[in-house]
Amino acid sequence: MLFSLTTGIFNTAVGSLSLKNDLTGSGNTAVGAGTLLANTADQNTATGLAALLSNTSGTQNTANGTLALLSNIDGDFNNAFGAFALFSNTSGGANTATGVQALFTNATGQDNAATGYQALFSNNGDPTNNEGSNNSAFGNYALFSNTIGYGNSAFGWGAMPSNSSGSFNTAAGFQALGQSVNAGDGALATGNYNTAIGERALGGVTTGSYNATLGAEAGSDVNAANNVICIGAGVPGVSSVMGEVDNSCYIGNIYNAPLDLSTAVPVLVDQDGKLGTQGFDGNKIAMRARQDRRNIEQFQTRVTELECKVVRQDATIVEQQKQIEILTGQLKDQAAQIRKVSGQIQIDRHTTPIAAITGEATNAAHRRRPK
Q1: Which of 31, 84, 281, 321 has the lowest CB atom count within 10 Å?
Q2: Where are the domains of the chain?
Q3: What is the pTM of this model?
Q4: Which residues lie closer than 8 Å to 97 by C-beta, 6 or more apart?
Q5: CA pair distance 276, 362, nearest whole angstrom
Q6: Is 368 a residue whose pLDDT tops 60?
């Protein structure tokens, strides 16, 4: 312990060979056999068998666990908590590994955060080429297969387990975004800019990019398609006719879903993909459902008006029938009177000539009578 120390100060070494080669390094703490064995730098803390064993010039590293940060040589600002955490790190800096074998393979990648058993287990890459860096994995096996992928975020048990070289992906949920290659039954994924939220969302994607899903198993059948949007649990993200189609949008619980037709309005989409029911000037879009309701109401009103008109017409017809009956009676009376008058005329016609003849004969007799 501290066998070689010369000018270094504020160092603590507990355990066989701990801080054995430190000469001028200061502010170091080594607890455990072989901890910080090769260290010559400042402000490192190692707790556990052979933790930070190979570190020479790396500073401000913290290793807590058996063989944690074992291979680190000159990497700075690393934190490893758990057996074999950041085991292979050499020059990578600003990494945080919490969990057994978290960031196990990482050598030079930097600014990674892994929490969980074997989280970011395979990560490694050249940060000067934006490889194997700026990744965040929270959950056992999260980003397990990632090697050179950059800027990925995985939250959940086995989240994004099959991603290898894809970058800028986001997964939240149990085994979200990618097949479970850590179990030996999946293909490596290389797609970029995918977002999967929900249990096994985008669970089958490999080369597809720019996809976004929300819901348990949403986008489950998407593999190589790009720019597919899936909203709703179990929405597979493929066409039942065309299969995988790029630039598609699928939303569950709409088709065949009942709604209130009295208040329903049509929804339109403009060239920007914006949904709405009215224009920017506030003018309402023609609303078919409401128009249909208005038409029905107008129809019902018209039917009522016609029914009332029919009732009035029926009353008029009844009144007219009464008047017709009265007129018919009057006509019958007039006909009777006409027949009576006609009979009298006939009588007069027959009686008048007899009288006239009689009168004429009488006059003639008087004329012939001697005076």
Answers
A1: 281
A2: 264-359
A3: 0.74
A4: 68, 78, 79, 80, 81, 82, 85, 86, 103, 106, 112, 114, 115, 119, 120
A5: 120
A6: no
